[in-house]
Write the structure tokens for this entry.
Amino acid sequence: MKRRLVDNVIKLIGRMDAWSWVLEMFTGIIMKRYSGDFRGSAEVMIGRGASAQAEPFRLEISRAKAQKWPREKAIRPEKLTGSQMHSEMTSLEAQVAPRLAEDLAGSSGVNPSSSASNCPSILLFGYWPPTDCLGMLSDYSSGTPYRGYLVQSFSSYFDMLGWQAVGSVGNPPPGGLVPWWSVGCGKFPLFDYRSTADFFWIGLNVPGINPVAIMSFSRGGARVNPVTGTDFHWSIETSAYNYANTDWQTGAGMQYYCLPASTYPPPQGVGIGPGTGKLESVTPLDRPYIGGSSDDPSPYNGIGPSGGNPPNPRQCAGDAYDSNLPGKTIINAINAQNIVNAEGIPITADTGDKDELGYYVSAYMAYLVCWYGRDAGVKPHSPLIRFYGHTNVGMNIEPYMGREALQVQLDAVIDALGSP
């Protein structure tokens, strides 16, 4: 197992003999140190013949390396000095491996100090890269006290399956292929309607946490430039929609060009063609729970569905709840920050729209967030919630760019909240 992990990491990341040696040493240390913990905590871990459980760990260690660098615009792995390599490796081992071990073993992954746990909570939800907890949400994935608030981020861990065309499959526009990811692994919300609802209402128990702010994030895709094939938008959505059950997309009929094997580090943004991958059909998702049904995990469980069977039985199908994030302040602050990639292309913050939000799982999460923020019937008796909303993040925004933009957005929200 360790040898395969090292081989894959070296093949995909290591381009210099010295760099490859450092990667091999690092992965060896990680596997030696944590594989025993995995075996002890679950019968299905490394060494017990269940490689499916070990595989996410192998992939995410590789992906964590890819997304850890460049943490800042000026740093690239091939330009690191020996001391910088050592520092980065030590930091990565300390931050990433314990979180992965905790998640695969079934612990919460959030272990704030007793003093921090008394702070008002701000919740961040992410989905496909770069919005996940190994990407732009990584600074808060273990629960971090910040400016008097406890900021916690949640996402699954995702494997890249292949490429999907922005336009019609089989005749994509130039540069019009975008990464297609799995539904994820781990106990945090998968890219799936029902696991998202279960996690939001029961697993995490958002009403029980009683947060002062909730922000969800997802990878954008509707605004890819058809000429350049890039998307650097940071879009603050204004509303989220309580669509009828049959309006939510399940992926049925969608296709993607699969990869011959999992590829890490994952490509950023768009590709130039399907390569050797064959065309595969997307495995359809189950539709969302019918709001008010006996299966509904929301506080409206069992009250009976409404017309169209939307998630919220007390709002008409197709109606919206608005976000109340300080959108203009966030947009102006991010644009003023001039967050650029290595080629000098900046993030462009603006207001999103209904077409960009779409009808897929991240739009469902956006609705859960705004629903909780606006509907007194699903909140605790003394709700603290003040700000809530969703942001679409362009797929060419690299994780280090996303972390910087997230920090600007978080500061804008906390400025609006004031001191706790």
In short: The chain has two domains: 2-105, 114-417.
